[in-house]
Write a structure and sequence with these properties.
- By secondary structure, the chain is an alpha/beta fold.
- It has 2 domains: 399 residues, Rossmann fold; 124 residues, GMP Synthetase, Chain A, domain 3 (2-Layer Sandwich).
- The chain contains 18 helices and 31 strands.
- The strands form 10 sheets. The chain has a 7-stranded mixed β-sheet with strand order 5-4-17-16-18-19-20, with helices on both faces. A 5-stranded parallel β-sheet has the order 7-6-8-11-12, with helices on both faces.
- Helix 1 packs across helix 2, helix 3 packs across helix 5 and helix 9 packs across helix 10.
- 31% of the residues lie in helices and 23% in strands.
- The structure holds coenzyme A and adenosine monophosphate (AMP).
- Coenzyme A binds next to helix 12.
- This is Propionyl-CoA synthetase.
- Pfam families: ACAS_N, AMP-binding, AMP-binding_C.
- GO terms for molecular function: propionate-CoA ligase activity.
């Protein structure tokens, strides 16, 4: 079928389209209600279908004779380990760990927080939670204790699963002290913590609360899959919004399974038995969807890689992994390829490896900038696909649908809308804009299966954050345009969310931390262009009257504060003391203008500005530190 036919069918007749796709799954009870409204008036998919996500990821393949096929390859250059789990082995491990959780009282609907590095036990824990019909919330290992605490407070888990440490290139990150600190900070206390002890660090256990993973598994009875409804939640994944409090994106079971299964063929052109590698982390949505669920739903082999694109041990790491395991599709963030390009500009390390089985390279997490696109294409000779998506959607909104019809790429564009997503460019009044004109990228409702139906515990935040600005549409928070040929260009966020090394972060959250310093009267954190990480945050601070501080000392203190409160992953390293911040006469900081100055863009001074001379001062201050982009 051509893309046009498939796409039109998905938009004109979504119920028939998705009912057909749902037929590819082994439901316990096939859904008869394809699309219905929930109590909040939100469109929901497959409400009366009954399924179990872990069953669809694992047991079904064993039943269908794929038990001996490798489900997971764990490759860990930081520990020098390679391990393989067949579908049968993984099913058994998951059933036993589900037994551990059940013994701790975890039932359908209960929450389990998972704070783990990139080891197979993280995947086992996720699938074990799903097996019980419970709800997991994975927290990225790079987040500090206060971030973990906010998530524990909000998700109210019965159990937290962790490991004794994560391993970065040149350092160990003991997780258990961070977890203990987070539990002290949270008013909700989990009744049990299961700790996977790694040989590199031995975690101190809290008697009566903490359980050793291996000991608990040795005593556990395997647990069976629990039936859930299509609309029951599978997981909560917190993501940065514009305020200090992260949003708990809720994913349901039925729509998620149908959408991801469909995407593996339509977008990535994967067949059962193929090897798929998403070089991300289970703490991010890419890890949830394309390290764990989609490859396993599709009977593929997935890679759990505990390493970096560079320095583990060199910039040939990606090519080594692709060659060793016959990876067919590689998916990573553009920043990873920029890091490789920096260390191996000619792509010399590629020559050491046989990449004949690698068919396509996919990128997402941030816009694929044309220089990185061209470089990757040139050195690998493989098709390079940019695709745009968000934690909220769980799968790609736009991309080059390699399994339906491969389009001629246009550098800088995420190609075309994926079937199911009705992508429109709107002006501030919500009117669709003509081709070529830039506006807000919005998705006409209903959203296809797999997208969030609410924010955990806060439907109003979902409504006001996504549905209020443009009635009848989901507002993505990204700006962009569609060209005459129907190619979609995503140009960046229209809010205060920034993207640092493919990690989504809130400048508002950093501002709250910076503003808490006793010397700071007011501040703005903006994202400025960075040649490796895409963007980096910079703090502009105004001191309280009469305060005298050494600027370098203040910078070090604020950098330390953000690191302790959010994590090293925020990459908050620069602070400038300024005399004034540009504001409107009503007192609102003109952040967009600050970004434009730092990005070296031309800008028009709004008539509402209070004091235009503040702009020259800021430009000069940024320039002195070499922070104005020259092109
Ligand atoms: N646990 C603990 N700390 C972590 C961490 C984790 N899982 N991940 C990152 N960090 C820390 C790093 O150790 C570093 O700490 P430091 O300031 O003490 O050195 C800091 O967070 C910043 O890390 P990172 O952004 O990874 O920078 P880097 O310079 O070490 O590496 C890249 C640069 C480009 C190689 C790396 O950012 C990368 O691989 N990015 C791809 C990201 C990605 O896949 N995103 C998913 C989107 S699909
Ligand atoms: P996350 O929720 O962490 O996946 O981040 C989603 C945000 O990252 C989007 O709203 C975009 O701003 C940005 N993003 C992700 N992928 C792309 C892409 N391919 N092109 C442009 N922006 C992207």
């Amino acid at each position: 079928m051509s893309y046009q036919t498939e796409y039109r069918e998905s938009i004109d007749n979504p119920q028939a389209f998705w009912a057909d796709k749902a037929g590819a799954l082994n439901w316990y009870r096939a859904p008869r209600q394809v699309l219905s409204k929930d109590d909040n008036g939100i469109d929901r998919w497959f409400a009366d279908g009954e399924l179990n996500t872990a069953y669809l990821a694992l047991d079904v393949h064993v039943e269908q004779g794929r038990g001996d096929q490798t489900a997971i390859i764990y490759d860990s250059p930081v520990t020098g380990t390679v391990a393989r789990y067949s579908y049968l082995e993984l099913t058994e491990e998951v059933a036993r760990f589900a037994g551990v959780l059940r013994a701790q009282g975890v039932e359908k609907g209960d929450r389990v927080v998972i704070y783990m590095p990139m080891i197979p036990q993280a995947v086992i824990a996720m699938l074990a939670v799903a097996r019980l019909g419970a709800v997991h919330s994975v927290v990225f290992g790079g987040f500090a204790a206060p971030e973990l605490a906010v998530r524990i407070e909000d998700a109210e888990p019965k159990v937290v699963v962790t490991a004794s440490c994560g391993i970065e290139v040149d350092k160990l990150i003991p997780y258990k002290p961070l977890l203990d600190d987070a539990i002290v900070r949270s008013s909700h206390k989990p009744q049990c913590c299961v700790v996977y002890q790694r040989p590199q660090v031995v975690a101190q256990m809290v008697p009566g609360r903490d359980l050793d993973w291996n000991e608990a598994v040795a005593q556990a009875q395997p647990a069976d899959c629990v039936k859930v409804q299509g609309t029951d939640p599978l997981y909560i994944l917190y993501t940065s919004g514009t305020t200090g409090k992260p949003k708990g994106v809720v994913r349901d079971n039925g729509g998620h399974a149908v959408a991801l299964r469909y995407s593996m063929k339509a977008i990535y052109d994967m067949e059962p038995g193929d090897v798929f590698w998403a070089a991300s982390d289970v703490g991010w949505v890419v890890g949830h969807s394309y390290i764990v669920y989609a490859p396993l739903f599709s009977g593929c082999t997935t890679l759990v890689y505990e390493g970096k694109p560079v320095r583990t041990p060199d910039a040939g790491a990606f090519w080594r992994v692709c060659a060793d395991y016959g990876v067919k599709a590689l998916f990573a963030a553009p920043t990873a390829f920029r890091a490789i390009k920096k260390e191996d500009p000619q792509g010399k390390l590629l020559e050491r490896y046989d990449l004949s089985r690698l068919k396509t390279i996919f990128m997402a997490g941030e816009r694929l900038d044309p220089p990185t696109y061209h470089w990757t294409l040139e050195v690998t000779g493989k098709p390079v696909v940019d695709h745009w998506w968000q934690t909220e959607t769980g799968w790609a909104i736009c991309g080059n649908p390699m399994g339906i019809e491969a389009f001629e790429p246009k550098p800088g564009s995420a190609t075309v809308p994926i079937p199911g997503f009705n992508v429109q460019i709107l002006d501030p009044e919500g009117k669709p804009l003509p081709a070529g004109e830039q506006g807000s990228v919005a998705l006409k409702l209903p959203l296809p299966p797999g997208c969030l139906p609410t924010v955990w515990g806060d439907f109003e935040r979902f409504r006001s954050g996504y549905l209020r600005d443009f009635p009848g549409y989901y507002c993505s928070g990204d700006g962009g345009y569609i060209d005459e040929d129907g190619y979609v260009f995503i140009m960046g966020r229209t809010d205060d969310v920034i993207n640092v090394a493919g990690h989504r972060l809130s400048t508002g959250e950093m501002e709250e931390v910076v503003a808490g310093h006793p010397a700071v009267a007011e501040c703005a954190v903006i994202g400025i262009a960075d040649s490796l990480k895409g963007q980096q945050p910079v703090g502009l601070v105004l001191l309280k009257d009469g305060v005298e501080v050494n600027e370098a000392d203040l910078e070090a203190e604020l950098v330390g504060r953000v690191r302790d409160a959010i994590g090293a992953v925020a990459c908050f390293r620069r602070v400038l003391v300024v005399q004034r911040l540009p504001k409107t006469r009503s007192g609102k900081i003109l952040r967009k203008l600050l970004r434009q100055i730092a990005d070296g863009q031309s800008y028009s001074i709004p008539s509402t500005i209070d004091d235009p001379t503040s702009l020259d001062e800021i430009e000069a201050a940024l320039d002195r530190r070499g922070l104005v982009s020259k092109g």
